[in-house]
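Fill in residues.
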């Protein structure tokens, strides 16, 4: 039911936005709907449907994680993985081959072999007494479990790297990262990883351990909550790498590891000019302040400004501006403690209370 509601919500969102990221999230949601639909058939002992549903299950089980990685890539990559034919083939081929092999073996089995495989392997996890096509079917399922475990590791590594790089770029370019940074997704991805590891173990041990057991309620509730959270976060995230000018992204990469570099005389001069401008003109109070704006005011470019911030202040552009804003907010609060917080936030350069409170918690002295 959760998956069905999620698919409907994402479909409505996709009709409004039609961006590529939400498209991949919708495809992921459809895959999870099919996956848990197959679980429904399995755990309710609809054995007459199992040969068909198990074929679908094996196929979509190998699609879910790659589709989620394609969704993350659509948000965080300048050239998403969906444009790389080799990666798309690596996504499509394993589940397609698995579905064809499993479906063909079921079709080739006679009724007694099919029933024997379902009872002995799918419901009891035993393969020692299986023979012929039933034994081949068990091996096919085991290979699919191994591929699934590999996919989990790949998605964890590649997903985290992309999210970290994207957030770093956003922090360098924007003072206000509200609705831009992937703030919720790292948390959700951690939950996703934990659940992935659990599902990998469960997948390896077999669904039969949960048949006719109250224990099934625990993973059911956990997966339902996680799937809903992932879909909800995805519907809120509409800022992607495509919204960042390409030349700005390239320039931020040059300052990735300069925080430990001794600042040059040019960086020191730029930083001193920056401090003077901020203290005298209070430029940080501009609600829509961008890195490019500040660079132009200083008569320099984004690259040199980022180098100055990184080597002299050891901060990103986001952190530098927000520290200035929160220091100013503290002054306002000290001067007039009765002033409403909404007014304090607006006067300090914030567009939203959530952004104000989050940064106040981070940089309050």
């Amino acid at each position: 039911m959760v998956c069905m509601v999620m698919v409907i919500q994402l479909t409505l969102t996709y009709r409004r936005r039609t961006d590529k990221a939400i498209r991949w999230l919708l495809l992921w949601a459809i895959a999870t709907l099919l996956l848990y639909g197959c679980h429904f058939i399995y755990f309710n002992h609809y054995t007459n449907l199992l040969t068909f549903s198990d074929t679908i299950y094996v196929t979509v089980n190998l699609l879910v994680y790659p589709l989620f990685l394609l969704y993350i890539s659509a948000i965080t990559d300048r050239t998403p993985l969906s444009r790389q034919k080799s990666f798309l083939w690596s996504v499509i081929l394993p589940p397609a081959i698995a579905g064809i092999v499993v479906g063909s073996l079921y079709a080739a089995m006679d009724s007694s072999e099919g029933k024997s495989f379902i009872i002995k392997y799918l419901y009891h996890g035993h393969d020692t007494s299986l023979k012929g096509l039933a034994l081949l079917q068990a091996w096919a399922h085991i290979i699919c479990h191994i591929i699934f475990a590999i996919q989990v590791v790949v998605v964890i590594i590649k997903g985290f790297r992309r999210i970290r790089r994207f957030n770093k770029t956003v922090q360098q370019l924007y003072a206000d990262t509200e609705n831009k940074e992937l703030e919720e997704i790292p948390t959700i991805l951690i939950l996703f990883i934990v659940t992935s590891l659990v599902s990998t173990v469960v997948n390896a041990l077999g669904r039969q351990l949960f048949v006719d057991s109250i224990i099934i309620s625990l993973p059911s509730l956990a997966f339902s909550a996680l799937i809903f959270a992932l879909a909800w976060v995805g519907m809120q995230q509409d800022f992607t790498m495509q919204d960042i000018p390409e030349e700005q992204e390239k320039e931020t990469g040059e300052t990735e590891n300069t925080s430990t570099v001794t600042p040059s005389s040019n960086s020191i001069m730029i930083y001193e000019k920056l401090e003077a401008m901020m203290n005298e003109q209070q430029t940080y109070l501009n609600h829509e302040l961008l890195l490019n704006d500040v660079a132009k005011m200083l008569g320099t470019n984004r690259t040199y400004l980022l180098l100055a911030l990184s080597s002299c202040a050891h901060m990103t552009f986001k952190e530098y501006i927000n520290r200035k804003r929160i220091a100013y907010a503290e002054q306002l609060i000290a001067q007039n403690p009765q002033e409403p917080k909404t007014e304090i936030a607006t006067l300090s350069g914030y567009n939203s209370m959530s952004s104000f409170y989050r940064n106040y918690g981070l940089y309050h002295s």
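The chain is about 75% helix and 0% strand.
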